[in-house]
Structures are given as C-alpha cells and as structure tokens.
Design goal:
266 residues, alpha/beta, 10 helices, 8 strands
Length: 266
C-alpha cells in the first residue's frame, strides 16, 4: 500500500503549533481506537483517511466472536497492512480465563492473525500468578502484550496505590504498556469522576508512584480528558479507547490544530 506523507503538503505552508509529534512506527504517542463493530468497508475507509494516526485497534469486548469469519480475517489483514496492531478486547480473554481456556484462546488468536493481546481483570478476579502466566504465555507466542488495571464496576473500584503496584508488576512480567481503565464512557471509573473529570488527588498520587508515565496508556474517550493529558504530558502521550469517528479530531488536538490545544502555544 502507499502511505501518504504525515500532514500531506500543508506542512510546507504552516507549521503544526504543537511540534514534536512522533510519526509511525512509534513507541510513544500511541493511539488505540475502540472498534465496536465496523464492517470491512467502514474499516477500510477509516484506515485510508486516518491509518497514519492509529497504532492499535481493539475489537471491543467479545465482539471478535460475533463476526463472520471472513470479515474478521479481512479486517485483521487490513489493519496489519497499515502497520496497526489489532487485538480482541480484554473481556473476551477474561471469559477464556474463567473457562480455563487460556492456551486455546491464544492459539486461536495467533492463527487468525491478531498481533496483540490484552490481559485484564476488569470484571473477574484474577490472582497474581495467573495474570503473570497469561502475560508470559502471550509474550512467548509472539504477541505484543497490553495489560489493563482497574475495574469496570463503579461500585468496585481499585485503590490508586494498588494501580501503581500492578503497573510495576505487569511491566516487570513483560507487558509492553499498561492501560488505565476508563471504559468507553470515561465516567465514574478509574481516575474519572461522574462528570468525566480527573480526580486530581488520585491522579497526583498515582504519578508520585510511577517513575515514567510514558509506560501508561490512558483510556481517554472524551475531549476534556485528552486535552488535559496532552497539556500535561505533551502531544506524545499514549491515549486509548478513542472512538473511531474521533481519530482525526484527536490528532488535530495533539498537534495544535484545534482551538483547545492551540491555546497551549499562545
């Protein structure tokens, strides 16, 4: 396939106000989108427009099991042809773990072409040894492993200091990046309050415990969250659970081509 130049020809006319944005392939400034059921044509159109700005595609929840097999294979191949990691949602692996089918799940994921695995316990209770085993098994099979910390139930939230300990443990056990739970709503979960704003004390407490925040992928589906993270950490902060229709809007925010982030440079 032919890749278009980042920023097309406009960069010869205007400089992006927020400079320093990493281009692909990159290890920082990652964007993970949440795909809740796009068809092949819609996926092709999205990647044709915005493939340069997407690093990971998560097929949300357990939707991977619901696709027509040929469509699923075509979507995986399409993502990989754009240099994009693609993987099944963490909840799907949680189901496999509940049923003691970890190895079978990984073999199936490998055979159909997934390149990445998410290890999470957003719904289930996962002991440390099984979590470690899941990370190691996926790594040994050649997957890039993302882990996720935090619970999906607003009434069963993990203390922030436990976040920090789990992040460190996952990285030690071979995780590539650790995702902070934010769900698709970005409200009343993890570090977010009911209005989708950061709980400031929790955020500061977490950052005091983490030596390098670049190892975190922040689930930040809402613009106010994305802006706060870009303002704090710069355009190359790792962001996840981005709605598919918001990829270009996020990239504009990252590089200062949107009023909210242009103000940062004034």
């Amino acid at each position: 396939m032919t890749h278009f130049e980042y920023g097309t020809k406009w960069k010869e006319v205007v400089k992006f106000p927020l400079g320093g944005r990493n281009s692909k392939p990159r290890n920082q400034g990652l964007t993970m989108i949440i795909d809740k059921g796009m068809g092949y044509t819609e996926t092709r159109d999205l990647l044709g427009i915005a493939g340069e700005y997407i690093d990971f595609v998560k097929l949300a929840f357990g939707t991977s099991a619901l696709y027509n097999n040929n469509v699923l294979l075509e979507k995986i191949e399409l993502a990989r042809s754009h240099g994009i990691e693609i993987y099944p949602g963490g909840t799907f692996l949680e189901v496999a773990l509940l049923q003691d089918r970890l190895e079978d799940f990984l073999y199936m994921s490998k055979n159909i072409g997934f390149t990445c695995i998410e290890v999470s316990d957003g719904t289930i209770t996962l002991d440390k040894e099984l979590r470690k085993k899941a990370i190691a098994s996926a790594t040994d099979m050649g997957f890039k492993v993302l882990t996720e910390v935090g619970k999906k139930d607003e009434n069963d939230q993990t203390p922030v200091l436990e976040f920090a300990g789990q992040i460190k443990s996952d990285l030690k056990n071979g995780a590539y990046r650790v995702i902070l739970e934010g769900r698709e709503s970005g409200t009343n979960v993890g570090l977010y309050d009911a209005n989708g704003n950061f709980i400031k004390d929790d955020l500061e407490d977490l950052l005091e415990q983490i030596e390098d925040p670049r190892i975190i992928m922040w689930e930040a589906p809402n613009k106010n969250q994305q802006l706060e993270l870009i303002t704090r950490f710069g355009p190359n902060v790792n962001l996840g659970n981005i709605p598919t229709h918001e990829v270009l809007a996020l990239e504009a925010l990252r590089v200062g081509l949107r009023s909210d982030s242009l103000r940062i440079t004034l």
